[in-house]
Specification:
Elements (H helix, E strand, L loop, with lengths): L1 E4 L5 H14 L8 H4 L4 H8 L5 E7 L5 E9 L8 E9 L8 H13 L7 E7 L3 H10 L2 E12 L2 E11 L2
Helix pairs in contact: 1-3
């Protein structure tokens, strides 16, 4: 397994995995397949282009296929630059349970520690996604609240737990 920061040249493989994620686990994301399937490759390139306050990590298997991703975005408001957010955590179903998610989130935390002045990393997770919550808690995230009916998909509501990792 190879984990690295994605760049614009990875846009095509990123988009393939992202669309697969939106089809496989639509309840887990704020966006939808129907919306993102129409994104131009330029839009995807801009989305994954790394900067000092944003990066997308990708996990590649031995064959070089992208099998997992996670996004880090630091807040840019003067009063909130001490915080960052995790988005789009996804591991392909055929490789789940092999430590890829754990490796991705640990690498994200490792790289986030290099951000001067960063104190907290926040994320949201669908409340009934026990495997994801267990992973986040294992690496040090703590639940600090729940947003009821945070997402609505196909007429069904999903609560989201709000979680924070404090950088020490």
């Amino acid at each position: 397994m190879n984990i690295r920061v994605l760049n614009e040249s990875d846009a095509h493989v990123y988009q393939e995995l992202r669309l697969s994620a939106l089809k496989t686990n639509p309840e887990a994301f704020g966006s939808t397949y129907d919306k993102e399937v129409h994104f131009s490759m330029e839009t995807v390139e801009e989305r994954i282009k790394p900067s000092k306050d944003k990066f997308v990590l990708g996990s590649f298997d031995k064959m070089g296929s992208l099998v997992g991703t996670v996004i880090f975005i630091r807040e840019n408001n003067i009063k909130t630059t001490h915080k960052a957010n995790v988005y789009g955590m996804y591991v392909a179903p055929e490789v789940r349970g092999k430590g890829i998610g754990k490796s991705l989130i640990l690498e994200l935390i490792k790289q986030a520690r290099n951000c001067e002045g960063l104190e907290h990393i926040n994320l949201t997770v669908v409340s009934n996604n026990q495997s994801a919550k267990k992973l986040y808690e294992f690496v040090g995230f703590e639940v600090y609240g729940t947003e009821r009916k945070a997402l609505k998909f196909d007429g069904q509501y999903y609560d989201e737990d709000l979680m924070v990792f404090t950088i020490s």
